[in-house]
Amino acid sequence: MRYHRVPNETVRRLPFYLRGLLLSLHWGRLCTSSQELADLVGVRPWQVRKDFSYFGDFGTPGVGYDTARLAKEIKKILRLDVVQKVALVGVGNLGSAILAYTGFGIYGFDIAAAFDIDPKKVGRKIKNIVIEDVSNLRALKKRKINAAIIAVPQESAQQTADALVKAGVTGILNFSPCYITVRRKVKVITIDIAMDLARLPYYMPAG
Amino acid sequence: MRYHRVPNETVRRLPFYLRGLLLSLHWGRLCTSSQELADLVGVRPWQVRKDFSYFGDFGTPGVGYDTARLAKEIKKILRLDVVQKVALVGVGNLGSAILAYTGFGIYGFDIAAAFDIDPKKVGRKIKNIVIEDVSNLRALKKRKINAAIIAVPQESAQQTADALVKAGVTGILNFSPCYITVRRKVKVITIDIAMDLARLPYYMPAG
DNA sequence: CGCTGTGAAGAAGTTCACAGCC
DNA sequence: GGCTGTGAACTTCTTCACAGCG
């Protein structure tokens, strides 16, 4: 199985497995079976085994997976074994919430800089980070930041992305409700909150 | 094609099409072709046509789709043609940002109530909404609210979901980084920001 | 001609069932 | 006996290619 292409869906599930394993580890479980891990993340055991099989033989038959080792392996696969510096662009309501969020740390992310276009915000300090003017984006490469979170209004999302790519950013998490085009080699993941909410009623029984 | 099961992926794309159509409408386009719409949302034209074909013949050969009509049809399919009342539980950083967000309106959502467990927050007013104590969740059914957004800390997410389901909620948008179990018939969509960020480095060229 | 709608072909992802190891 | 790893079957989704209508 080792030589197959890894499905995108498998990659999407890896962070979920990691979360489950860290939880399992936190509970003191030295060993975690595919069944236990599956229950923790809401999938089926064979899916778990199949997913891991793309990367190697991590488990021990009759026993399960070494919790700590598997967590480490997944971190390596996802390249979360080194600290990933991230820039935040747009410190409005959502941007501020992201800055205040402490959940990124366990995955090795460090929000190392924050930018805004509003002169009233520039210079203010949130969580030890001084908000800079967006013109400073140019210097991102020098600061070894190559991922960014976009939390600006929709109408400036594309130009923000363009500036980021120009500054050497190769990964973007976009919270603006719009489709962003970038050159191949740059990965954009868009989270559109309203869009996810919008498909909820479809699945809800009539009321 | 009309009698086939609708793929989940198609349902996931419908809100994107709706966003594109509303944009097209905003630009005064009476007619939108599958090619134009595809460009607006980042898919291929045949995907657009196939997706719509599950629901009916909305287009005119040689011309395209009547922009306003198609938007209306999608709203009907997604049940966004009636106002959907939504409750927000957890008015922390993220919850406040969601309350302040104005992007839900165009899809017919009305955040009609907000709840928190912190007595210091209860009674405060944000955007014309008075924050209530979580014990008031019980009355949701009477208030005809059957969808909710969970923005509470991870450790209270499951119990919040349980309380919501008990109160008659059948659709939940969950922002807590954890897997929530509910009985069949209740739809949960989870947005885990850190999880989406966590798969970004995998796709980024080494740096 | 241009653009839609769709069966059929192809690709991608999931589930099964069981061999094999502890 | 228990649990992993995986080819093969199956299901789901995407893409193609083109008939058919305006």
Protein described:
The structure is a homodimer of 207-residue chains. Chain A is an alpha/beta fold. The first copy, chain A, is 36% helix and 19% strand. The first copy, chain A, is built from eight helices and ten strands. A seven-stranded mixed beta sheet of chain A has the order 6-7-5-4-8-9-10, sandwiched between helices. In chain A, strand 6 and strand 7 form a beta hairpin. In chain A, helix 1 packs antiparallel against helix 4. Chain A is globular and about 60 Å long. The relative contact order of chain A is 0.09. The mean pLDDT of chain A is 96. Chains A and B meet through helix 1, helix 5, strand 9, helix 7 and helix 8 of A and helix 1, helix 5, strand 9, helix 7 and helix 8 of B. The structure holds a DNA duplex (22 and 22 nucleotides).
The span between the termini of chain A is 47 Å
Q: What would the average pLDDT of chain A be, to the nearest integer?
A: 96
The helical percent of chain A reads: 25-40%
Q: Which structural class should the secondary elements of chain A be placed in?
A: alpha/beta
**Largest binding interface between chains:** A-B, 60 and 59 residues
Cα-atom radius of gyration of chain A: 20 Å
| Structure summary, number of beta strands of chain A | 10
Q: Characterize the largest beta sheet of chain A: strand count, sense, and whether it forms a barrel.
A: 7 strands, mixed
Number of helices of chain A: 8
Beta-strand residue percentage of chain A? 15-25%
The H-and-E topology of chain A, N to C, reads as: HEHHEEHEHEEEEHEEHH
Question: How are the strands ordered across the major sheet of chain A?
Answer: 6-7-5-4-8-9-10
Uncertain stretches of 5 or more adjacent residues of chain A: none
- Please state the overall shape of chain A, judged from the principal axes of the Cα atoms: globular
